[in-house]
Write a structure and sequence with these properties.
Rossmann fold, OB fold (Dihydrolipoamide Acetyltransferase, E2P), five-stranded parallel β-sheet
């Protein structure tokens, strides 16, 4: 299996290095190189592209803006000299984020990651996106916290509290919750439904972390959390079937 890929960078030396690295990887096939987003857009319309190595700081249109504008996105690996785009790249669901200068070892690791995602998508018939690999939920995910990315291990979560535009993620053995700008629904989509249940319009709980239930309150992680009347039956059924 080969991944048809393109290299997009406004610097000729950077394009040459990307091209050389691509030719070193046996499962990558170079479909073309582009010096800006507009050339890449034209190439994407003409040819099948499975993977795009994309610079960010380019004249005319930033690589991140270009990627966000595409209705049908190939898998994308960002290659940049600037670390301040890491948070934005996470929101774009890219395969990887490589800092220049990129070693062949690091480049190869990113390429194999793209191949793995592509093969899983092909097997499930999913669209060519990293999000399409989520048939099995990940063991961890990252959230934005004060301009940084913080790793959240799913098994460590006791419960999640929604607060308008923010959520608090409570973790076992952590004194303070992680506060991130997100919706409760956005976090819920990252959590395996067999282990997590929304018990209230503002709360999702880890069924395995529940300590006790009394009336319409449960204790989890040493804190009391309300259970709405409409969700109590679902909670009891979930606990009955949970491992």
């Amino acid at each position: 299996m080969k991944l048809r890929c393109i290299a997009v960078d406004d610097e000729s030396l950077a394009r040459k290095l990307l091209e050389e690295n691509i030719r070193q990887i046996p499962f990558l096939e170079l479909a073309g190189t582009c010096k800006n987003a507009f050339e890449a857009m034209e190439l994407l319309q003409k040819d099948q592209v499975d993977l795009m190595f994309l610079d960010i700081q380019m004249p005319g249109m930033l690589g991140t803006k270009f990627l966000a504008s595409l209705r049908e996105k190939p898998l994308a690996i960002l290659v940049t000299a600037y670390s301040n785009y890491a948070v934005e790249s996470y929101d774009l669901d890219v395969v990887d984020y490589l800092m220049k200068p990129v070693s062949l070892e690091r480049f190869t690791k990113a390429a194999y990651k793209a191949l793995d995602i592509f093969q899983k998508n092909k097997a499930t018939g999913a669209a060519p996106s990293i999000a399409g690999t989520a048939a099995a939920f990940p063991d961890s995910f990252f959230v934005n916290v004060e301009y940084s990315l913080v790793k959240i291990v799913v098994d460590d979560i006791t419960h999640v509290e929604g607060m308008k535009d923010y959520v608090k993620i409570y973790l076992a053995n952590a004194t303070k919750p992680v506060l991130t700008k997100s919706t409760l629904k956005g976090i819920e989509e990252k959590l395996p439904p067999e282990s997590f249940l929304r018990i209230h319009k503002s709360y999702i709980v880890n069924l395995e972390k529940i300590e006790s239930i009394r009336n319409h309150q449960l204790t989890i992680g040493g804190r009391e959390v309300p259970v709405s009347e409409g969700n109590m039956e679902d909670l009891l059924k979930a606990l009955k079937h949970s491992k």
